[in-house]
Structure of NifX-associated nitrogen fixation protein:
Amino acid sequence: MTTDALEARGGQMIDSDFLTQLAAVIRAEDSYGQWDGKDDAELMAEFIVTREERRDIPIIGDPDPDVLWRITKFYDAIGLMIEKRSGCMASQMQKMSHEGFGRIVLIAGKLVVVSKHLRDVHRFGFESWAKLAEAGDALIDSAVAVIDAYPDAARA
């Protein structure tokens, strides 16, 4: 997909620590260097889902494994950003049904710092790069605030 086509789908790629981390998490999966020539927008293009595209995605049947992989990478990046900002490692646990419903939690020490119920995971994505970055930053900010409120539990 060309850069112009990507910009039409997600708008202008923005400068965001979260998006940089998400790209790094995805690149870590590339053990053979096949994505070295791709820029971050190309690498993360599947995270952008327009309203029209969202309407065309059926919610019947098992979620696509690629969608589940993207959800995992999204929350992995959030966990790493939480660790960078708070010093507490946050690891994820997720349980997803074959119908596309589930829950994701990120745990730091003995403290649940993110608890997110998901539904319609078939349609997981964001309308723009800005909305993707905002969603990640909001979860990170909230988790760091919880860690700041209960530091003993987070460091236990």
